[in-house]
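Reviewers of the previous submission asked for a worked example of the structure-prediction workflow described in the proposal, so we include one complete record here. The input consisted solely of the amino acid sequence. No template or homolog information was supplied to the procedure at any stage.
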Amino acid sequence: MDVVHAEKFLAALDADWARLVGQVGPYQPRRLPPHPPYEALLRAITHQQLQTRVAELILGRFLACFPGEAFPSPAQILALSPERLRACGLSQAKITAIHGLAKATELGQVPSRDAAQAMRDEELIACLTPLRGIGRWTVEMFLMENLQRPDVLPADDFGVRQGYRRLKGLEKAPTSAQLRQIGQDWQGFRSAAAWYLWRVPKA
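From that input alone, the workflow returned the following structure tokens.
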């Protein structure tokens, strides 16, 4: 992604965006390690609805169940008893989601990283969201942070919609559908737009 080009594009939209880019500073997208979708999604499931510190503790216990492995294979996870997974601190809903992800990966329903790279954004979202515990937002974060896609707008995200409300001084945040329509004007740089909207000052 051309980071400088993204900043200039957004700053040129109108005075509100120019002010925001000036306040926040250079665009610095989060770049996660290039994990394959299976591993990235399992990590995402572990982190759902938890503070980062707590989630990392649980993930550490989970990985400790597989000594000598950088990351367990789907078969290794499926061979582990639900009781062992529960002892790591995983909820029953997350255990079910992790098992479903592992089974789907074994069946070839979860693409490799190379295959995911070759898929369009909406194609990958449609492929992965039928899996339990994997919503559109989770796949969008994978697209933005792991695959470094430049044009992803997580319009369902509360922080993005509230950021736009504050940016424009609106009484009410736009709905997801409204923000997707508004975001058509940011096409090509919607990942950067979301990054800035997450950082709109609250004062």
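The mean pLDDT is 94. We consider this example representative of the routine output the project will generate in years two and three.
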